[in-house]
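dumping this here so i dont lose it again. seq + smiles for flavin-adenine dinucleotide
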Amino acid sequence: MDDTVTDGEARRRVERFLAAQPIPAPGDDDGRLAFLRARFDAGLAWLHHPVGLGGLAAARELQPVVDGLFAAAGAPDNTPRRIGIGLGMAAPTILRHGTADQRERFLRPLWTGEQLWCQLFSEPGAGSDLAAVATRAVRDGDGWLVTGQKVWTSMAHRARWGILLARTDPDVPKHRGLTYFVCDMHAPGVEVRPLRQLTGEAEFNEVFLTGVRLGDELRLGEVGQGWAVARTTLMNERVAIGGAPVPREGGLVGLLADTWRKRPELRTPALHDELLKLWVRAEAARLTGVRLRQQLAAGEPGPEGSAVKLAFAGLAQQLSSLEVELLGEAGLRHDSWEFSRPEVVDFTGRGATYRYLRARGNSIEGGTSEILRNIVAERVLGLPAEPRTDLDATWKDLPR
Ligand SMILES: Cc1cc2nc3c(=O)[nH]c(=O)nc-3n(C[C@H](O)[C@H](O)[C@H](O)COP(=O)(O)OP(=O)(O)OC[C@H]3O[C@@H](n4cnc5c(N)ncnc54)[C@H](O)[C@@H]3O)c2cc1C
């Protein structure tokens, strides 16, 4: 870490940058992109990244300071919610496991949002048991041919690239025969089909991969080491989903508190008790997220990220249920059943019923709550692990 980049130095750099780089007018897409590219090149995108890769090798704590200065100046941002898989999962994985060429090639357009990413991990027979994936990648000259089916692939319909876990060796135990790739979503043989959700929209997809040719330069990490690479993604995924910074009384609890203040006629003593309990839990979860991000400044996310994601999912479901209950009949009126292909998961911009329905997925996506409880039990609390019989068996001999 570069200790010379203090809070004061970071502020001065932003001031100098803003003095030299005019803020584009709203709607000026070219100007917006030029601004974001320049910000990346000035090392003011991901402050903790190395110089040349969007950062200044500075402390992560400086990130909110810099983001705040850009926001206060009315500068465009890279709308992280739109590209959460890229920013939250692909980027840290590429930074840690990618070659110099891969970092150079992917990180800048990822950060600016020019290229969106999706995650091609889950399969019909491999969700919680992710190491069981059956999608095959077979050597083909200087590249690979990939064939298989992925499922629940959020935003695949918008993505330029996908992070892909595939089996390269079926003759070894399941965790050892995997390799991690970057999948070109425009390559021949990639077919994306929508899956309609409980909310009515199709935010995720099935992705069929039929003889998709990927050059070896799209392999991330060593052949057979895909599980170690995927663990970096998964650890970051939990932090990205559960540990995103929110202001006090922000997010779902904020919406609920707002309704409570504005609509006294809806209040009952029982709902009041429930709201207060959830408000306190939301604040505790928020502060735990702050602590987690401070720990992150010192290194990689640990299993504590699983606890934060677990808490986030439970709270989102309870808060959205309480909102529907508070609103009574109006709370049951869904704002739209129209089949749509969204660009964002817009929790706060939609109605109460949307939030209630979409929150069901929070305890499934990014690792189910049952699995996260196992992780917390084993790796945080040190309790005995579940008995496993499949760790040393050859993957091709496992029942499927
Ligand atoms: C909204 C949403 C978006 C998603 N986006 C993506 C995406 O972009 N990319 C992607 O790759 N995947 C995505 N997923 C998939 C998600 O990661 C998987 O659904 C999840 O890992 C669970 O896998 P599964 O559905 O196969 O369930 P299963 O693994 O079949 O589990 C079924 C049930 O059994 C429980 N269970 C399984 N094993 C155990 C155990 N050992 N102990 C206790 N309970 C257990 C589970 O917790 C669950 O309740 C998304 C899912 C949702 C809901």
